[in-house]
Fold this sequence. Notes:
alpha+beta, seven-stranded mixed β-sheet
Amino acid sequence: xxxxxxxxxxxAFGVALLFSIIVLAQQASSLRGxxxxxxxxxxxxxxxxxxxxxxxxxxATGGSSSGVSYTLPERxxxxxxxxxxxxxxxxxxxxxxxxxxxxxxxxxxxSEATANTIGMAINVLDAFNGGGAxxxxxxxxxxxxxxxxxxxxxxxxxxxxxxxxxxxxxxxDYSENNFNGxxxxxxxxxxxxxxxxxxxxxxxxxxxxxxxxxxxxxxxxYSWFAQEDWRFRPTLTLSFGLRxxxxxxxxxxxxxxxxxxxxxxxxxxRKTVFRFGGGLFYQWLTGSLYENTLRYDGVTQQSIVIQxxxxxxxxxxxxxxxxxNTVKRxxxxxxxxxYTINFSSSVERQLPYGLKAFQEGAVVREYRK
Length: 369
């Protein structure tokens, strides 16, 4: 009887869910038809496929609205990505106490994007995004090399490990983001007037980026560490370590990060382990952040903004043109790497049939953010 009741309740729930989906689909279809009719009146003869949001090649880049808008297929873009990696590694057992691990990696990453339509982008706020994709053309190529060395020495109750790592990247980034320009219209009526009466009606705003789209730079990250695991007792292991990190983009090299850890199994059955640990962890200045300081330095790329421009030629009629730095970002010569201080603890218990119970907690504080 309970199984029968459960089946009936499940069937009733399924019918109610199906009915709700049908009602929502009908409402969505009605809304879609209204939007298509409205856009069809503005763009006669166009075959319009609607998709919510600002996708298809960065529709929001040229100044789209935060409200609901639809992206036309012409605004789309195509992207290709490739990644090639070569890894070499060797483990050399020097003697019964000493082992050396060597690793080397070469990596080549590339990505490119092209627009379906080459031309100015058109954003009609709370209506649609059309015209050419603002993202393109763009192409990024990164060639990286990484070298790692680890030396492990085991002697009775002590295990010492030393290591170093060097990572180097060469980056070539070409980006014509909004280099064709973007018209922004306040609403559909303003766009309808502009298309029906060219060189008389005006848009709300026109923006276009100018300057050098090509950036080349390199960056190198260095790190080394020393660590010891001391088996003080069969039930107690203490761990100590120190890590040092620095990179080519920051003058500050005083980034020493101590680490400590404890593993304790207090009970005779050795099935319960308490672990405590903590340390200081530095964060790298990423390539994307550094790249922005090069691209938006006030000279390499700038943005032209024209308020109330004529359409489709924004430079006609002696417009009021202002040249601004879209974003000006500088790298503080005294910048220090941000870091976090982490403390964590956990309890692990072995259960019958190979099962384990695990409980973990952590406290993290951030500095220099």
